[in-house]
């Protein structure tokens, strides 16, 4: 399952959308406690025309690049997460 955030344009939007994305993941996987993920699970994308392109390949980079006003509209996307039964 791939999770997407709503588009945002600034650091405040990044923080809000990251929290919402983590809530979606926790709900999907039935996690009640703290969510622990590898650093490369959440990727920042930038909208260029009608396409979304990857800007970062780790959550550390995503937080840094999310503050760039020149990037315009951005969103967060996860890698394809698999639910094991």
Biggest β-sheet: count, sense, barrel? 3 strands, antiparallel
Assign a percent range to the helix content. 25-40%
Order of helices and strands: HEEHE
Integer tally of domains = 1
DSSP E strands, number? 3
Give the quaternary arrangement of the chains. Answer: single chain
Q: Give start-end ranges of low-pLDDT stretches.
A: none
* Share of β-strand residues: 15-25%
Please tell me how large the radius of gyration is: 13 Å
Broad structural category: alpha+beta
Q: Going across the major beta sheet, what is the strand order? A: 2-1-3
The number of helical segments is 2
State the separation between the terminal residues, measured CA to CA. 14 Å
- The whole-number mean of residue pLDDT values reads 85
Overall geometry comes to globular
Description of the molecule:
The longest helix is centred in the first third of the chain and has 19 residues, at 11-29. Strands 2-1-3 form a 3-stranded antiparallel sheet. Strand 1 and strand 2 form a beta hairpin. Helices cover 31% and strands 19% of the residues. It contains 2 helices and 3 strands, in the order H-E-E-H-E. The relative contact order is 0.30. With 85 residues, the chain is of the alpha+beta class. The chain has one domain.
């Amino acid at each position: 399952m791939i999770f997407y955030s709503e588009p945002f344009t600034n650091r405040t939007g990044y923080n809000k959308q990251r929290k919402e994305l983590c809530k979606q993941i926790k709900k999907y996987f039935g996690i009640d406690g703290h969510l622990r993920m590898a650093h490369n699970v959440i990727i920042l994308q930038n909208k260029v025309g009608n396409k979304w392109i990857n800007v970062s390949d780790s959550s550390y980079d995503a937080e840094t690049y999310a503050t760039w006003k020149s990037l315009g509209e951005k969103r967060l996307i996860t890698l394809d997460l698999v639910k094991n039964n």
